[in-house]
Every structure is written in C-alpha cells, then in structure tokens.
Design brief:
Oligomer: single chain
Distance between the termini: 38 Å
Shape: globular
Order of helices and strands: EHEHEHEHHEHEEHEEHEEHEH
Strand content: 15-25%
Structural class: alpha/beta
Strand order of the largest sheet: 3-2-1-4-5-6-10
Number of helices: 10
C-alpha cells in the first residue's frame, strides 16, 4: 500500500521542511492549507515541489476535509495548521476555532476514514508555564488551546483507537523561519549571511530545536507511532539570544556589530515532568546548536 500523508499547514515554515522529509522518503504528501507554499517551496524543495498535491481547504469545513482524506486515500496525518501565540491572544475565539475545533476535525476525519494509521500533531512547550510542580499551567491562550488538543487526542485513543504522538518543540529555528514571537535568531542568521543589521526583540533562555530535526520528528512519529496518545517533548538545546549572536559571529566574523538583543524576557515554559522524544526513539540525536546555526547561515549564502 502506498504511503499518502496529509499535512495540514504544509505551506508554513515547519510544514515545508516536513514535506522535504517526506519526499526524501518517497512518500506522497498531500497539503491542506489556505494557500500553496509558493516561493518557500521552491527554495526548500526545489524541483520536487511539483510532486506535492495541494488542496485549498479549511479545517473548519469538516466535510471538505473528509473529502480530501478519502479522495487521496490518506494513510497518515501530520497536523501542523494553527494560529500562533500573538494571533490567539489578539482573537481567542478565532484561535479556539482554528486550533481546537480544527484539530478535532482532523481527528474526526481519521476516525471516519478507517484507513488512517496514526496522527503526529503539533503540540508545544506553551502547554507548560514558568511554575514547577502541580501549579504548572499554560501562560497563554495558545498554550491552553494546545493543551486542550492533547486532551482531545487522548479521548480519540480511548474511545476510537486513533493512535497519536504530540510533538512538543519549544523554539523552532532555522531557514525560512520568518514569523512569530521567537523568529529573531533565525532572522539574525539570515541578516548576517546577507551582511545586514538585525535586532532580536526578546531576551531570556529557551530550549531551541533545529527545524530539520522537528520535521524528522513529525515524520518518524507518524510512521512509527506507538499505541496510545503520547506526548513527546523535543530535547532541544538551552540558549539565549546572546548565545545565537556569539555563534553567528563565529561563523560570520564581524556580524555581532550589526546584531542587537533587546526586549522582554520570554516565558521559560518548564515541563514539570519531561516526556522526551528519546523515550519513543532512544537513538534520537538532535542537531547541535552550532551546526544548526551554520546550516541556517549557509542556506542564505546560496
């Protein structure tokens, strides 16, 4: 049986790298998004972008989503589509519709198809707050919505036998990251490669995950999904924006003079009981931060 993988949000930053990972393994990716990947697909996928099947569809139209799943004989689902933190804070109702109701539509499409073998979906370290122990709670609407989807996934396993893995990155960085609160380090690497100035507009430490690792995690979780509804925290590398500036300057000498760090501290999002991806895949090895920064700069040099 062929492997037809539906990727919601496949035109976005992480989604594009997920497509690249799928195509490298000869899978057939089907993208559901409100717009195609355009020049981003061309830059990351090159000629293989022509192999992606694109469907202009909304997760808020369950019948339309179901029709896509059936017509393409989808066997696996990678669910990435979501509104990010700023949009959810600005319009919680819309954020709930897209992130919670849209995610429920994805699980329901899998249940109704009877063919989908597993779902890998995007959760987030935003489900965690800065506190330790039982008091730990999401500090934002975005985190609360993501936690709600984790609970919904558990119910679909409990009652419908739909297996899933919730991939939880903290801050994803790398080539083509250009939107969101924490895009600054990726944009600083691009600016350095192009000889331009940039300001990273936040401070504080966080765990960083290189985008190719994140894409690999989603694809592997979809194909090797164990029974149950399992969360998987990505074991990224702790760093600050200043650490990125130092690494960038080592690779592009003199770049630090054009890069600045300023702004409020981001929430640390500390998991009280981490459930790392290495529990599912003991052979997992994340890309070291210095290597990820090098690849990001090299991408923009070409």
């Amino acid at each position: 049986m062929s492997t037809n993988v539906l990727v919601t949000g496949g035109s976005g930053f992480v989604g594009t790298w997920v497509l690249r990972e799928l195509l490298a393994h000869q899978a057939t990716p089907v993208v559901v998004d409100l717009q195609p990947g355009g020049t981003r697909w061309q830059r990351v996928l090159g000629a293989t972008a022509a192999l992606v099947r694109y469907e202009n569809a909304s997760l808020l139209d369950p019948a339309q989503l179901q029709e896509v799943v059936e017509r393409h004989q989808v066997t696996h689902l990678i669910h990435l589509a979501a509104l990010l933190t700023p949009a959810c804070q600005l319009d919680p109702w819309l954020g709930c519709q897209v992130n919670v109701m849209g995610s429920t539509a994805v699980f329901e499409a899998a249940r109704r198809s009877g063919r989908v073998q597993a779902i890998a979906y995007a959760s987030s370290y935003a489900v965690y707050g800065p506190e330790s122990g039982e008091a730990n709670r999401p500090p934002s609407f975005y985190g609360a919505f993501k936690q709600s989807v984790d609970l919904i996934a558990e119910q679909y396993w409990r009652h419908c036998n739909i297996a899933s893995v919730a991939i939880r990155p903290h801050v994803v960085y790398g080539p083509e990251r250009d939107q969101g609160l924490t895009a600054g380090p990726s944009l600083a690497a691009r600016a350095a490669a192009l000889g331009q100035p940039w300001t990273i507009d936040y401070t504080g430490g966080a765990s960083y995950d290189y985008v190719e690792d994140v894409a690999r995690a989603f694809v592997r979780a979809a194909w090797e999904c164990p029974p149950g509804a399992r969360p998987a925290d990505l074991p990224g590398q702790w760093a600050t924006p200043e650490d990125f500036v130092r690494l960038i300057d080592q690779l592009e000498p003199g770049a630090a003079a054009r890069l600045r760090v300023q702004g409020p501290a981001i929430p640390p999002n500390l998991p009280p009981k981490p459930q790392y991806l290495t529990e599912l895949f003991p052979d997992w090895r994340p890309t070291p931060l210095a290597e990820g920064v090098r690849r990001t700069i090299d991408f923009y040099r070409l």
